Amino acid sequence: MNEDNINSFQRSSLWHDAFRRLRRRKFAMVCFWIVAGYFALAVFVYIAESIDPTMSAINWKEQLGQGMEYQRPSLCSVKTIFGTNFLGQSTLISTLYGVKTALAVAFAASVISIMIGVPLGAAAGYFGGVVDDIVVWIYSTLSNIPWIILVMAFAVVLNDDKIMGGKLSGEPGVYLAIGLTSWVGICRLIRGEIIKRKESEYVLAAKAVGCSNSRIIFRHLLPNVFHIIIINFSLRFVSFIHMEVIISFLGLGDANKPSWGKMISAASSELTRGIWWEMTAATMAIFVLSLALNIFGDALRDCLDPKLRMER
Amino acid sequence: MNENIPLLSIRNLSTHFFVEEGVVKAVEDVSFDVAEGKTLAVVGESGCGKSVTALSVMGLVPESAGRVVDGQILFRGDDLLKKTESQMRRIRGNEIAMIFQEPMTSLNPVFTIGNQIVEAVKLHQGIKGEHAWSHAVEMLRKVGIADPARRVREYPHQMSGGMRQRVMIAMALCCWPSLLIADEPTTALDVTIQAQILELLRELQKQQNMSVMMITHDLGVAAENADDVAVVYASNIVETASVAAIFEEPLHPYTQGLLRSMPRLGQKMERLESIGGSVPNPLHFPQGCKFHPRCPIGVSDQRCRTQQPQLREVAPGRCAACFHAKGYGD
Ligand SMILES: Nc1ncnc2c1ncn2[C@@H]1O[C@H](COP(=O)(O)OP(=O)(O)O)[C@@H](O)[C@H]1O
Ligand SMILES: [Mg+2]
Fold first, then answer.
1. I want to staple A101 with a disulfide (CB 3.0 to 4.6 A). Which of A139, A259, B58, B241 is the partner?
2. Nearest C-alpha to atom 5 of ligand 1 is from which residue?
């Protein structure tokens, strides 16, 4: 019947449909490839570093020229395209290494916040009652503390050698601090979606077949909100990158590895002396990645969100 | 199996919802039996408490507000209300299965229908992988879906309403339950599809020697499929009898009204035209017999307006709850 056709058209294999739409958006696809490029670079740096940390392509410690001094951007060699910092280390290599730092931290933080937020939100939404009260209380409390203070508090504690035995200082400290403080958004979102769906007929049908509560949550409900998790993940990723930059800007990150925040922090005092390249390289790297991620994330949301997919 | 013990025996079941405005007595003091291998039709207008009765048997009354407050649900002589949640899980989908009114929304949109059919087999019989899959194909063939080996990999949105209801039936029957509860299985379907689905249910019932509790608002459906009928009105059973007896001589004025207004098979019916008024709000049931405001006799009878008639045996094998029913006595 007619009604059937429309219905099947609307739902026609959510993912397949979404990707077809996405491919039609040229600009979003350009952004996708930019993001993919950043990821490829991060993976390359990660692998290269684990094979040989002194490999010339990623060796950000290497001093170019003679002695510790700035070099202006010059086209003589690839490594000095963006000049060097005051130690004579290549800005280009530091910036590229920063890609790995930023993406690794943002990715790990996303995984942590999803692992905390999704199960908690699902349990709160599904069971309601006391479970819901407790979860809502926790996240209301967390979300009422200004974010930056919370992250800094976590980062300071995790970086403190006396408290954590030094095991969590550096990169793990940064992504744990971000992940542990930023699961509230996804938790709230999933809670709402589960509340909306838990009374649906297919859940009742699953109960009638004898499914347990956990099976209904994980096998029947969560797959139905998977696209929401993906959308949230892609949009949240940008803010995680920004958080990483802020934390390392404040000197709470890994002191031994280059990161964009550290570069900006170091360059900010030199800007008045006309040394503009370090600041420019780091901010451009952040700017391009953020823009591409945001545009792609928005496009992905438009393509996946059934409410927005009304163009028949 | 003992011939004398009915497979399912509901005794004085009451299920209430506790909402802000008060207590919704959705099911009140309901008793009926479903015999081994037989079909019982539970007939009544919408809002009478039929679905809640079914959910009570399954142990699936929405916990947020509702609760079975009284009664017994004896399945093979065991009280289901005394079972723990994990014991009930082993019964649901295995010994008692249920199909729902809305085939369009009762299937999970993100899984293939094969996956959904084998869910029960995996849960209850521990069959996995290829075996479970071929069982799903077999079940699809059984419910009359052409090309089951291909269909089993499709998603619900690729099927029509009638086919989805067939899939729901396949899901419900794949563990060979001894009792099937069908809650208005054909209400949402076209007339021709309705007849096909009912035919299919009859056939499978015969094959598997299963009992069926068929919930419907359509006496026509009951006439074609059931052995016995229980008529519900406003949370109470008002009459029980064999199909033949009900059609030959309905005793309760409500049943008489239902019969008079019987729509031809398939016609959608929200309210009965020949019975004036509508089902009372379960928050404010009328005093006395709940049917008296709509009843040709009761509306002017002092006793009907003040006392509630109990369901009582009025002839061998049939009961009615009306002071004026033949054989009710004083
Ligand atoms: N979850 C619920 N909360 C409150 N009231 C409910 C709930 N479910 C059903 N009811 C009430 O119970 C009564 C019977 O409903 P139901 O069994 O669905 O009727 P039907 O005979 O049409 O299947 C209705 O008046 C309905 O308002
Ligand atoms: Mg109903």
1. A259
2. B17
